[in-house]
Amino acid sequence: MARRGVVRMGFPDADAASFAALQKRFLDLYRGALSVQTRLFNGMEAVLVELAKRELLYGIVTNKAAWLTEPLLEQLGLSARMACVVCGDTVSERKPHAMPMLHAAALAGVDAKQCIYVGDAERDVQAAHAAGMPALVATYGYLQPDEDWRAWGADGFIREPLELLAWLDRDKSP
């Protein structure tokens, strides 16, 4: 959920002036504790190790601003392992537009059609498809109970990070 949505959820009746102050306070607190209790999903470290072993590039495309994303990745020890990190303010468009996806592929030095995007929002599927990438829905992510991810038109889904490896191998089986 977007930081604006989090603040609105906590303070649904706040007027515009109060909301702006509450949002600033939220962002100040969030910035000061980015990686506190933040962990990779179970199995994700094994996936990243296997991707590196296979010499497959990976990166992140997020709508979160760079001033929040980059320090978080650094604190988690992930930034040096990524082929690219594209944030919501890296290019002039955000997901669901194709531009962030195409920019990520360019940074990684690969054609967008060689990429697979794993996301947990409809805009992720839309952006991947607009860029010519297959899209998988991570059903273990931050989906809300009322979201019908099956209606998004994704190319598949994974229930846990390790299923990505099986999905990558599916075309290689005899």
Structure explained in plain terms:
With 174 residues, the chain is mainly alpha-helical. Helix content is 41%, strand content 9%. The chain contains seven helices and five strands; from the N terminus they run αααβαβαβαββα. It has helices at 3-10, 16-32, 44-53, 66-75, 99-108, 122-130, 163-169, and strands spanning 59-61, 84-86, 117-119, 135-138, 156-158. The strands form two sheets. It has a three-stranded parallel sheet, with helices on both faces. β1 (59-61), α4 and β2 (84-86) form a beta-alpha-beta unit. α1 crosses α2 (16-32). The longest helix is centred in the N-terminal third of the chain and has 17 residues, at 16-32. The mean pLDDT is 93.
Q: Share of helix among residues?
A: 40-55%
Shape: globular
What is the mean predicted local confidence, pLDDT? 93
Radius of gyration: 17 Å
Q: What is the helix/strand order?
A: HHHEHEHEHEEH
Q: Helix/strand/pairing class, anyone?
A: mainly alpha
Main β sheet profile: 3 strands, parallel
Distance linking N and C termini? 41 Å
What low-confidence regions span 5 or more consecutive residues with pLDDT below 50? none
Total strand segments:
5
Number of separate helices = 7
Beta-strand content: 5-15%
Strand order of the biggest β-sheet? 3-4-5
Structure at a glance:
With 174 residues, the chain is mostly helical.
What characteristics describe this protein?
174 residues, mainly alpha, two-stranded parallel ribbon, 7 helices, globular
Q: What's the topology here?
A:
Elements: H1 3-10, H2 16-32, H3 44-53, E1 59-61, H4 66-75, E2 84-86, H5 99-108, E3 117-119, H6 122-130, E4 135-138, E5 156-158, H7 163-169
Parallel strand pairs: 1-2, 3-4, 4-5
